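Predict the 3D structure for this chain.
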Amino acid sequence: MSTDSTRPPLLLVLYQQYLDHQNTGEYARGVSRLYSPGTLQRLSGNPRREVRRAAVLALGILGEYDANHTMGCALLDEDRTVRTLAENGIRDVWTRAGNDAERKELEEIVRLNSAQLHKQALGRATWMLHRTPWFAEVWHQRAVAQAALGQLTESIRDCHQTLEINPYHFVAATSMGHAYLRLGNPISALECFRRALRLNPGLEGVRAQVERLTRLVGDKP
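Done. Predicted structure below.
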């Protein structure tokens, strides 16, 4: 006879259904009916790796910006799948600060950068930062536009600001490293790439840069 102690947690039932059918919307709806964001954050530290996977996947889909710390910690999880889910999900979590209008404005800035309309992205990001200076991802998107326009010193400054607000932003640390490389400063680039790896050890391209630059500058890891 089955008991509550032997039944799999409902979160795992939903997760298995997701693995079987790959229906993200159905998974999100099922999880949101049964679990609060706070509970999902607690479950991300569960001893069972399958529970951690399910919770981190759900937070990547549903989590607001206050899940950033939890997702950042999951980047260092001992389970590779948890780390991968965290890396994919945390990037979306970074966009979920602010209200609906502010998020829509960020979406437009991201779209402009993706379309290589960097001058427009720079202008809109600057306008937005006057109103939302606490929004880390806007600082990073402005840094992206600046780097594309050759404004490398300004891009590095905005990456620093991104990391001041969001210390888990491994993408900003990586971007800063590339900007320093373009400025001919391999020592500072190496420091930035190492910071990115401390935040997210799964960045294999960054790891290769660290190995190359370590040999170049004669430094030890």
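Confidence is low (pLDDT under 50) at residues 1-6.
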